[in-house]
């Protein structure tokens, strides 16, 4: 029964996850990384980084015409961010679930935004919205040599 569809749902993907300046300033880095780590995804890139304005504008270029765009760029460049590349089966959609709704007041308890934030303009974390954007964003934020392929010893205990 549609085995090719089932197979395509099990693709290994990569997601760009970023702890925004408020998450760093509020001391939430460990908590946030821990949630993806415990879920079972693989960390293949990690750095703390002061984002230049041009990179923030490129990252959020789809939102260029929004009234909140200048404030968004100001927010993202207001202090260091923590850039992460996470890999795993279904990591893009799963990370979005772990992160929760864009507006933290609407995000479910148990999600990062639901537990740790109150305002859309201070929602502590970014996660790619598609596997294509995951690849695009990781290429945008990381140099090739900064990404590390590795095999976790727990892999056979996570995936049959
Ligand atoms: P997402 O981060 O949940 O994918 P997007 O709609 O892609 O949400 O928006 C990107 C980011 O822009 C949000 O995470 C938030 O920081 C900011 N943003 C979105 N909508 C608003 C708004 O109405 N006011 C202020 N900031 C916003
Ligand atoms: Mg988005």
Describe it.
The protein has about 160 residues and is an alpha+beta fold. It is built from nine helices and four strands. The protein has helices spanning about 5-10, 20-25, 30-40, 55-60, 70-75, 90-100, 110-115, 130-140, 155-160, and strands spanning about 10-20, 40-50, 80-90, 125. It has a four-stranded antiparallel sheet. The chain is globular, with a radius of gyration of 16 Å. The structure holds inosine-5'-diphosphate and magnesium ion (MG).
Which SSEs are present, and which pair or pack?
Elements: H1 3-9, E1 12-19, H2 21-25, H3 29-39, E2 42-49, H4 53-59, H5 69-76, E3 81-89, H6 91-99, H7 112-116, E4 125-127, H8 131-141, H9 155-158
Antiparallel strand pairs: 1-3, 1-4, 2-3
The structure holds inosine-5'-diphosphate and magnesium ion.
Helical content (DSSP H or I, runs of 4+): 40-55%
Report on the biggest sheet. Answer: 4 strands, antiparallel
What is Rg? 16 Å
Bound molecules: inosine-5'-diphosphate, magnesium ion
Biggest sheet: strand arrangement: 2-3-1-4
Order of helices and strands: HEHHEHHEHHEHH
Mean pLDDT: 95
- Given the C-alpha coordinates, what overall shape results? globular
* Total beta strand runs: 4
Strand content: 15-25%
Distance between the termini: 20 Å
The helix-and-strand class reads alpha+beta
In DSSP terms, counting alpha (H) and pi (I) runs of 4 or more, how many helices? 9
Low-confidence stretches: none
